[in-house]
User: Fold this.
Amino acid sequence: MGRFQGLDPARVRELAGHLDTVAGEMAPMHRQLTQILQAAAGDVAPQQVSTSPELAPVLTSVQLPGDPPLPLPSTSSVTDFPVELFPSSMSADALAAGPMPGSIDPFLRRTAADIRSRCDRLDQVAGAAPLGAQLDGAALLDAGLVDLNATPKRDAGEGAVAKWWAGLTPAQREQYLYLKPEVLETLKGLPPEILQQAQHLAYYKVMPYKTSSQESSGGVKLQLGIFELGQGFAFRTEQMNDGTYRVTMINNGQAGVKVEEGDLTLSAGVKLEIGDTWVFKSKADADRLQDDIHQVFLLRQQELGPADGNPMGVATMEIDKILKRIGQPQIKMGTLGTEATLELGGGNVTPSVKFAGNVSTVTSTVDPRRPSVTESRDFSVDLSAVRGQGLKAEAGTVLNGTIQVVRDKNNPDPNTNITAVRLIRTVEGKLNGQFGGELTGKVAEVSGSYKTGVTGAQVVTVNVPIGAAPDEQAAARKWLQAPPTSALINPGVPSGPPAPDADAFAELAHSRGQVSAVTYQGNASEIKAGAKVTIEGIPFGFEGKVGNKEDHVVSQQYLGAPDPETGERRFVPIK
Assistant:
C-alpha cells in the first residue's frame, strides 16, 4: 500500500461529517430569517425591506401594503452554486448571486459526499500502489475522480494517446496507472517508463475468472439392488472478467453401489464427465448457441421420425447449416472421478459427509497461437446436516482443493512443455430449505422433493507461470512430483518473501505468481421425483431430478506486485 505525504485521509473524512452537521443546522435558521423578513414587509413603506446583497435572494421585489405575502424562498435551488471542494461561497457577492445560507444545505451535503468519494479513490490508489510508493495525497484529493473508463481506444493513434496523457495532471495519471494498468499497457504513445510500469502492474492484476454464471442441469438414476446407474447433463453460461462469455455443455454417466443398514447409508461410485465449451464476445452470441442447440434437437427428431417429417432431407440440411455456424468448441474437458458418501439417519437431524476425488484433462484453443492441455487433480469434502421431517432445513460447507499443470499442446516433451502450475481452493457454504414427502406401501414407494436456498463461495487461485528456461522447468517438475499435502487445502498465497531455504518453485510463486481471491453469492433450486419397488427383498428404483443455480461476484481482489524494498505483496480490491 502506497504512503501519503502530508495528508491524513481519516481527518478529511471527519471534515465531511462536520459539513453534514452544519448543513442540518442551517436550514431551520434560514426558515426563521425568511419568516421575520416577510412579517416586516407588511409593516414598512413601499420599498425594499433590505438593500443588503446577502438578503437580496429572499426579497427580490417591492412588497406593497395589501399584496399577498411573499413566497418562501426555495431551499433546494443550488444550480448556480459552485462545486469546488472548498468554495469561497460565503462572500457577499456569492450569496447575492446564489441561494441564501440556509439553502446551501443540499450543497454542503453534496460537498461532503464528494469529499468521501475522493477519499475512497485515495484509498483505492494507495491500495494498488506498491508499498514504497510516495503519493501526494493533497494533489490526489484536489484532482477529483477521473473516469477510469475514459481512456483512448486501443486503436487510437500514438499522437492522440500522447496528447491525452499530456493533458492529465500527475495526480490524474496516478489514478489511471495504479487502477487501470491493464488498459494503459495496450496504448501506444505513452512515455516508455509509464508503459513499462503499467505492464509490470498489469501482469499481477490480469487473471481470468468468472464474474457470473447460470446453470441448468438434470439427470436420471436407476437402482438395481445395491447397484446404481445414472446419466445426466448440464448447460452452463459464464461471463468472464474480460467481457467474454463461455457456454458449456456437459454430459455425465455414473455407476456405483448403495447399501442401507438401519439408519446408516453408504454409497460409492465412479463418474465420467465430458464437456464442450464455446467462447463468445457477446451475450447475444452466447444466447444464440442455446437456441441453436434446441433447434438441432427438434430437427433431429424430424430426421429420425417418419419420412414425411424430413421431406427432401430439409431437416438434415438445416442441421448441417446450424452445426457449421456453431463450429468446434474452444475448450474440451474430460473428467474421471470417484466419490463416497456416508449418511447417518435417525432422530430429527441427518448428518452426512461426502468425499470426492477427480482427475481431468482440459484442452483449450482459446488462444489459437498457443493451445494448451491442462491436467488437473482435485479433492473435496462435503459436510452437511439436514434437520426436520417433511419440511427440512439443510446447512453445509464444501471444501475443494485443486492442483493443475498447464502444458503447451504443441510441445509433446513433458520435460520442457510446462507453461503454468495452478493451485485453486474453493470454500462453499450452502443453506436451503426442502419440502418433500413419501408415499410408502408394502411393495412400492413414491417420493418427491423440492429444494431451494442460497449459496456463497470464495475461490482463491494461485497461478504460477513457468518459463522455458531449464531451471524453471526443473523447479516445476520437482514440485509436481511431490506437492505438499497441504496444497489441496491451502494454496500458499505468496504474500511475503520466501524463506532463505525455500525451493526454486517458491521463489517463482513469489516473484511472478498471479493470485486472485473472488467471493460469490447465488441461489440454487432442485426438484426430485422417484419411485421404488421391492420384489423378493430386492429394491428396484428410478429417480429423476432437474436443477438450476446461478451466482455472481460480490467482491474481488488480486495480490499486488512485490514491493521493491520489502518484497511484501498485499491484496488489492478490484472496484
User: Anything to note?
Assistant: The longest strand covers residues 418-440. Residues 58-102 have pLDDT under 50 and may be disordered. The radius of gyration is 33 Å. The CA atoms of residues 151 and 183 lie 8 Å apart.
